[in-house]
Specification:
It is built from 5 helices and 8 strands, in the order H-E-E-H-E-E-E-E-E-E-H-H-H. The protein is α+β, with helices and mostly antiparallel strands. It folds into 2 domains: 133 residues, no CATH class; 35 residues, no CATH class. Strands 2-3-4-5-7-6 form a 6-stranded mixed β-sheet. The protein has a two-stranded antiparallel sheet with strand order 1-8. It starts with 11 loop residues before the first helix and ends with a helix. Bound molecules: zinc ion. Zinc ion (ZN) binds next to loops.
Length: 191
Amino acid sequence: MQPNFEKVKSDPKKEEFKLRISGVELGNHSFSIDCDKRFFELAEIPDVQEGNVALRIDMEVLEKIINLDFHFKGFVTIPCDRCLDPVRVPLDFEEHLVVKLMPWQEGIQEEDGIWIVNENEYELDVFHFVYEAITLALPTRVVHPDDENGNPTCNPDILKKLEELSQPAKNDDDVDPRWEALKHIKESKKH
Ligand SMILES: [Zn+2]
């Protein structure tokens, strides 16, 4: 059997997030990337179980600046804060990134939506940028919505359990016999 060199190479899905900027004509370019099952497996965004988000990147290439507009549209599933069953969360948002090309820059300097990169850089890897954009777009609290009658659409078994746990353990008709016995002892001591 041949040694598997493929494992050393980057995942093909990750490669899709490397945008070539070297030798690209000035003007507007557009890319589409599927943030699909494989993307979410690789990204491992906290709480996100699965998802499918269509990403369109509009790239405007100027002499020393590249403007990138990211359009996200799709959904992710996140465990419900109440019952832990998955909730489908729609996503529809945009992010912007400005890339400045500098002759002496070494590596990438990032600050406040601006990347400064060397003008001879071959490509931009936006995988982590996309990871962060989706992470920041997620709501802080996710619960199943109520139905038209105002009842929660959470997992009914879990709801029942939660209700049982929140109920006081006893009511007045059902007094613990040990407590009754104790009361009698106290009463008799008074006399
Ligand atoms: Zn729920």
